[in-house]
Amino acid sequence: MGGREDGLKVLVGKLATLMRGGDVKRGRNRDPIFPLEFQLQCRITERRKAGIPNEKIYEELRHFRLSEDSDELTWAEFCELARSPSEWPWD
Length: 91
Known about the structure:
This protein has 91 residues and is mainly alpha-helical. The protein has a domain at 35-82. The protein is 48% helix and 0% strand. It is built from four helices and no strands. Helix 2 runs antiparallel to helix 3 (54-61). The longest helix is centred in the middle third of the chain and has 15 residues, at 35-49. The protein is elongated and about 50 Å long.
């Protein structure tokens, strides 16, 4: 498998480490994702699959605010969200 371990084997090893009182590092998704960010990522992915260009998607979503001290979604925030494609769990 190209040096990769089976996912179940890794999980069992982590569980055994925890049971013995050891520390287990978090997986690759270390930063929590907030519900609005997840929804925006899903919407971006959905619109991209429909063939909509990023600029048009940004115009549709720019009225969202990721923080209390921002007026709208910035292009940089949009690009950051677009780097992590997500899909709705029911699709």
